[in-house]
Structures
1.
Amino acid sequence: MSKVEAILSQLKDIAANPKKAMDDYKAETGKGAVGIMPIYAPEEMIHATGYLPMGIWGAQGKAISKARTYLPAFACSIMQQVMELQCEGAYDGLSAVLFSVPCDTLKCLSQKWKGTSPVIVFTHPQNRGLEAANKFLVTEYELIKEQLEVALNVKITNVALENSIAIYNENKAVMREFVKVAAEYPQVIDAVSRHAVFKARQFMLKEKHTELVKELIAEVKAMPVQPWDGKKVVVTGILLEPNELLEIFNEFKIAIIDDDLAQESRQIRVDVVDGDEGPLYRMAKVWQQMFGCSVATDTKKSRGKMLINKTIQTGADAVIVAMMKFCDPEEWDYPVMYREFEEKGIKSLMIEVDQEVSSFEQVKTRLQSFVEML
Ligand code: SF4
């Protein structure tokens, strides 16, 4: 097995076994893990406690039954899965759960938590342009800090926070480089591998993830760049999984050369900037500077233009919209983006992501026809 294959295999294992990653961490450090509900949270604060931050992104192919008691059938697919897992006690090993509520479904779910872990709910202000929004979010972060300190019996110092901010900023920078390298070497980093590198960062200490990805980048860059005879796409949406779906991209030689997925590049888009203000204020500013995301209100609706620019700059053949089933914020953005794609002659295809399904024949047919049309 080559070094590249070995690193990818390690990251794929972690991405596929979050429970094992959490148990290993507990055994190694004696500390537990804190769950993070999508989409954004001041994860650096959890890192500063020494607990492992764990992303909570549902599961694939799990039949929904218990969740139906608490959520209507038209709640988004990912939260149906999260509720089902909660009812089964899947998150009860977490020491706490951090819960932002930027959409109606998350608001609803935050009031119906069925697990036993303490839940810390906070709000992102949606009138994001105002300085008052930063100040409001700082007060929310102060409350999170107090609640984490009580729940975990730790003290979060500014020194620890600054250290965690530096670790996260470095990880984001390395991941942005990884995106470029993956685009240059689609033969080496296929759609499944690319996703695994992103997903594993949800279940690892970021400094360990950074080291592995740096090593991966160095190994890949030492290889010659080969011409790509397939198609290239930019993908957008909440998430694009499972591997069975991504394998269809590989089968039809569709390289993902950039993404705007909430689970992937939106997580690495904005750094915490340096400055004299305290760490909580600088972390709060990240929300104000976030762009191109369906849950971060943008009156100028710039996501479509951002995707068009990405498509042109990367030389992509098309945009693929991975529409999370029954996700209102994504559905509201789509008509605006679609009109802009049409006006600029950018080819696009929308596919539905439903975490309950386990058969992907329909998506396969649509992707195959789309590639033939391209
Ligand atoms: S943003 Fe969309 S996918 Fe995420 S919780 Fe809200 S409705 Fe569900």
Note: DSSP finds 14 helices and eight strands in the chain.
2.
Amino acid sequence: MTDRLYYHDSFLYEFEGEIRDITESPRPAVTLDRTAFYPTSGGQVHDTGWITSGAAKHRVTEVADREDGGVVHYLEAPVKELAPGSRVRGEVDVVRRRDHMQQHSGQHVLSAAFVRLFNMTTVSFHMADDYCSIDLETLSLTREQIEAAEGLANEVILENRPVNIRFVTRDEAGKLGLRKIPSTERDELRLIDINDFDVTACGGTHVRQTGQIGCILLRKTEKVRQGYRVEFVAGLRAVAAARRDFTTLTESAALFSAHIYDLPQQATKSQEEIKALRKQRAQSLEELAAAQAAALLAETPEADGRRLVVRTFSDRDINSLKLFAQKLTRLAPNVVALLGTISPQAALVFAQSIGQPFDMGGRMKEISARFGGRGGGSKDMAQGGIADSSQVDAALADAKASLAATNTH
Ligand SMILES: [Zn+2]
């Protein structure tokens, strides 16, 4: 059983202790008789820091609870000079600990604010590396409620209320109106008491005055199975998050040459412009296809009662090829069009005016397969792809030859 010094003082960053046991594998680790290092538990992640003995300084990378009540300090590298009984000094990473205190105490204030204002209970707390979240038991959560809870939490922070650690029996705790009483075997409970605002049973590290939380900023909310998840950041994390947000907004606003507050309107305006331009472009393409089809048809002589257009394009996608084929075959009742494109992808379109006798779908299936691709379609309009763009002309020539061989009389 390790004596947990952080239980009584979250601001104790340095301490002395004696090694109880040492493990080399699977990971190097030491257990001490006493520690100020916080092990991952109750939603709060572990401290990091250093354990030193003489001139040797060992990095503590992770701290965990052991079932027998010990606290295990995992080290970056194996230790050679230490043995059970060695005296060591522990040093907790202050920046990380302060951050964790700001987040965890911030969570207590926020959870209490949701209870006070809307009777919403916090069912779980999660601390990640750059944000935290609580899950609230509620069927709905509005933006106004979010802002009201954030407002009350920041007021309590500003009031700089004392935060005390108290130890009571379970019976005493029952009379104190705790947010929730944990279901442990232990008779003694550790309470975090935010003066006249909240009392919660908790083993975490906490600030001494709510002012040390700094501030609290609520961010994303999302519906989860048992209610709503609310992401928040407290203290310096809130400052870092606001800084990141501002940088992102500033960069985005620069793209529009706009003020950051005008971004939503500017983005909406841009989207509308893009929509209008797309519509305009489609219309222009259609008009262009019609004009080109008319010009091409005018220079195509009639032979055997039909006008056969065979053409390879170098830069059209299959959709504009189809559009072109459609225009051609509708301009006159006797048109047969065999079209190909070599980029962006080798593709073929075969089409005929309604009433013409060929089976374009069947022909496409056969020709595209012959050139290592696949395709098909209806009697009057068919499309396909082939593997090699240098074979487009050859495929069209084959298609032309097969039409000539078909007896249509
Ligand atoms: Zn807590």
Note: The longest strand covers residues 14-23.
